[in-house]
Amino acid sequence: MNKIIAGCILTAAFSFSAMAADVSGYIIDKSCADKPAMRGNVACAERCIKRGDAVVLVTDEGKIYKLDNQAKVLEHAGQKVTVSGKIDGETIAVESVKI
Known about the structure:
It is built from 2 helices and 5 strands. The chain is of the alpha+beta class. It has a single domain, classed as CATH 2.40.50.500. It has a 5-stranded mixed beta barrel with strand order 1-2-3-5-4. A hairpin with a 5-residue loop joins strand 2 and strand 3. It is globular, with a radius of gyration of 16 Å. 25% of the residues are buried.
């Protein structure tokens, strides 16, 4: 009986480690992510991303999320979007992007 309870607890713990969510924010390059004035600056985001900077999502509150599938968000550089996917720590596994 104890093994069954322990198994249920372990399963529940793993299910909470990666939760599906919708997160709104700006698709921007990592080097400008901590500069609020750069949010929404499409030209700068495109330029820095082409230079090779990592792409992140920055919320209005300033929370920065890494994005596991950057190809899905590149066309939205500098724009405010809602990213749907599973959050695991500071990373979003991108499933879809909406403007």
